[in-house]
Design a protein that fits this description.
Elements: H1 17-33, H2 38-48, H3 52-66, H4 71-78, H5 83-95, H6 98-155, H7 161-196, H8 202-209, H9 215-236, H10 241-251, H11 255-269, H12 274-279, H13 284-287, H14 290-302, H15 305-359, H16 367-379, E1 383-385, E2 392-394, E3 410-413, E4 421-424, E5 433-437, E6 442-449, E7 452-456, E8 462-466, E9 470-472
Antiparallel strand pairs: 1-2, 3-6, 3-9, 4-5, 6-7, 7-8
């Protein structure tokens, strides 16, 4: 069987392997400490493992060991173990402390799990609130706004810009939502995977997280805790400092810290101290605070570097506990503002048209009063029978600038962004709104002036409609 390390990246097994890997190391440590042979210990663990992928890994490990490879080499070929794990296993085999080093690895795996759990817990609340906000917003736009469009059409008021855009968005969702929404969600999840999880591109997401206040502090404390514990453990186990720094670089999750550890490894290899190595890296203070650097330097000078690093780890593990609890409190006002803005936007879109209608009653020459004046003027005019529609309609005097039309001149109302078209008392947007007409309706027009058409909406109401939203369907008989 070909080991995972030699497979293409898309065939390697990583999903759900972290918990199984920790289980393997913990039990392998206990069984070897109890005097069991490595191959027998692997067989015993394989009998309890349910994951087929992990059973394949264990089978590969057993075959490599039976073929004469040391355990650390078999771990390296398996492709699921991190470099510091392989280094500690190798050191344990060479020094005869394999079970002890495996216990250290298991402890480090547990610490990493707890640190990741703290990050997930801190981010769970804001993600839940934002997801719920977006879900409710889409539901309102999809199911409620299209119904409000009909109500506003009956109110016969000109809608504000915000209301028009929200209704347009709601109408779009009503027609295409069943297709567009799944596509958008699929694209979102694919984007999140490549930004935050795909090995070759997840540095983009990490860079974004390091720019978010609060989250940046938590991630920094998590990485410093890992820096102290892992480096201190490797040094205490007897690993050379350069090799320990190399293992630390491979175990780090963040590109900025990987570059710092790579610099420290090169500098220490050249014979420099930690003090000079930190000083020659431009962003060292932003990644590892100056007091922590001074502690590392003091530990190096006193010969107690491993103990100093482990104390740093303990301190920052406690800090991550507090920061993860406080992060929700820090982000809560920001989330409330975001939710508040969404609620205010929807509320304004609904209230403004109603407010405009009611506010008209308090004006000296309100739109409703002007509409009533136009209706009274039309009612006072003589009435004739329309030769085409067979309806009685008022005779409308056409202005001298109006183009004369045939009695059979007709128009059809086109679709508009707000779902209807206003009828005004004059051939201008300054004219008072006297009625509304709906897309698809047809009317005889009596005159045409400056791109506006004069129509009779009913026996009592007539006015002008803008030509950009109608089509001339006149016929000659």
């Amino acid at each position: 069987m070909q080991p995972n390390a030699e497979r293409p990246w898309f065939l390697r097994v990583y999903i759900g392997i972290r918990k199984e890997r920790q289980y393997l190391i913990e039990n392998l440590s206990m069984l070897i400490a109890g005097g069991m042979v490595v191959t027998d210990a692997i067989d015993a663990i394989a009998a309890e493992i349910r994951s087929k992928s992990m059973k394949d890994v264990l089978r590969t490990l057993r075959e490599d060991i039976e073929n004469g490879l040391p355990l650390w080499r078999a771990f390296s070929r398996a492709g699921i173990f991190r470099e510091y794990t392989i280094s500690l296993v190798r050191l344990g085999e060479e020094s005869g402390n394999l079970s002890h080093n495996l216990a250290l690895i298991a402890e480090q795996e547990e610490k990493d799990r707890l640190l990741r759990s703290k990050i997930r817990s801190a981010m769970l609340y804001p993600l839940f609130v934002l997801t719920l906000t977006v879900t409710v917003g889409v539901a309102i736009a999809w199911f409620i706004l299209p119904r409000l469009a009909t109500v506003f059409a009956q109110l016969r008021v000109e809608l504000p810009y915000l209301t028009q855009k929200l209704i347009t968005f709601g109408n779009f969702l009503e027609v295409h939502g069943s297709v567009v929404l799944p596509l958008v969600l699929s694209a979102f999840f694919v984007l999140m995977y490549f930004v935050f999880f795909f090995p070759k591109t997840k540095f983009i997401g990490q860079t974004i997280l390091f720019r978010i206040p609060g989250v940046k502090l938590l991630l920094q404390e998590v990485e410093i805790a890992r820096f102290g514990y892992m480096l201190g453990t490797l040094l205490r186990a007897g690993l050379p400092v350069t090799q320990a720094l190399h293992s630390l670089k491979s175990a780090s999750l963040f590109p900025h810290y990987q570059k710092l550890y790579a610099h420290l490894e090169r500098s220490v290899t050249e014979g420099n101290s930690f003090s000079k190595s930190f000083a020659t890296y431009r962003n060292a203070r932003r990644l590892i605070p100056t007091p922590i650097q001074q502690l590392v330097v003091a530990g190096e000078q006193s010969g107690n570097l491993a103990d100093t690093l482990l104390r740093i780890s303990t301190t920052f593990e406690e800090r991550t506990e507090n920061t993860s609890k406080n992060l929700t409190v820090i982000l809560e006002p920001v989330l409330l503002v975001i939710v508040w803005l969404g609620v205010v936007a929807v509320a304004l879109a609904v209230i403004l048209p109603i407010y405009s209608l009611i506010g008209g009653f308090n004006a000296g020459e309100s739109p409703t009063e002007a509409q009533q004046n136009v209706v009274e003027e039309i009612e006072a005019r003589p009435v004739l029978e329309d030769p085409v529609l067979g309806e009685e309609e008022a005779v409308i005097p056409v202005a001298t600038t109006t183009t004369a039309t045939s009695p059979l001149s007709r128009i059809e109302i086109l679709t508009t962004d707000i779902g209807y078209l206003n009828v005004r008392s004059a051939a201008s947007t300054e004219g008072v709104i006297v009625a509304t007409v709906l897309p698809g309706e047809r009317y005889v027009y009596r005159g045409k002036e400056n791109g506006w058409y004069y129509i009779s909406v009913s026996g009592e109401v007539e006015g002008w409609v803008y030509g950009a939203y109608v089509t001339d369907i006149s016929t000659d008989e």
